[in-house]
Request: fold
Amino acid sequence: MTVDINLYVATQQKIEIPLPSIYSPIIAGAEQYTGEVYQNYLLDNTGDNISNLNKSYCELTVLYWIWKNSTNKYVGLCHYRRYFFSSLFRRLLLEPISEQHLQELEHGDVVVPNKRYFRKSCFDDFSDFHDIKDLISIRSILSYYDSRYLPYCDIVFNRKWMYCYNMMIADKDTFNSYCSWLFPILHLFDKDYKHQYNDKYNQRVDGFLSERLFNIWILANDCHIIEKPVYNIQENILLPTAKNAIKKIFY
Reply:
């Protein structure tokens, strides 16, 4: 059975592995992109878009573009170097998840990366790499934007694992529901709380915050989660796989 699905690949470079037909590469931050535009690649500065925000929103400019412009029944987001795989064996073959692995998707299902485990809480882990005031600001926004999410925010901040990378696959209704909640929160953060960041890494603050917000939304809405392994095709696969397995046992 054919599934009406499109998995969009956020990228700013040519994708070097063959992808099944359900994948659509899309240039992230196309508004300021000066590199080569490859044949059949989409651009995130077409239609309704926020492409100009890519420096702080990262792959979220593509997430927004999917929300506003895609008409597929099921949609998903992955990265030029990170993909969902059905197994480690398929990763070795460089064969990302394909239509045949998604035949059983139902309305309300959300495919997410396998949990990533930390030595400490998500809150403390964030503070090791970013300005913790930003995460505190998100909680403040939730307190007046939609206080129903506060208990779930505290649960996510205190636990030691997270669904990372802003990657997901879902039916378009569920996808739209998430985006219509996420982007107003980020807009409030940008307007009232965001400050200047000296390094390029932390300029991507909205992308980092949305990873935490995604986990809050998933928990609060009691979504039916389907975890799939995500592998970085540019990394040695054995080391990160082993490290996460150890963290899962001991942390």
Summary: DSSP finds ten helices and eleven strands in the chain. The chain has one domain: 5-250.
